[in-house]
Amino acid sequence: MECTDFKLIVVGGSAGSFSVVSHLLAGLRPDFKLPIVLSLHRLKHVRSGLVEGLSLKSKLRVIEPNDKEKLQQNTVYLAPANYHLFVELDGTVALSTEESHNHSRPSIDHTLGSAAYAYRDKLLGILLTGANRDGAAGMKEIADNKGFTIVQDPLSCDIDTMPKEALKLFRPDRLMNPEDILHFLNALPG
Amino acid sequence: MQNSEKDYNYKEYLLILKECSPYDFSEYSDNSIDRRIKKIMRDQGLNMEELVLKTRTEPDFVEQVVEAITVNTTELFRDPDVWNHILKKVLPALKHQKKINIWHAGCSTGQEVYSLLILLDHLQILDRAEIYATDISKKALEQAKKGQYFYNFNAEKYRENFKASFEGETVPDFDSYFSADADKDLLKIRTDFSEKVQFIKHDLVKGDLPFYNKFDLIFCRNVLIYFQGSLQSKIVERFHENLFPGGTMILGSHESLGGFFKTKFSKNGPVYHRTNSFHFKY
Question: Which residue in chain A has the smallest CA separation from B253?
Answer without folding.
Answer: A66
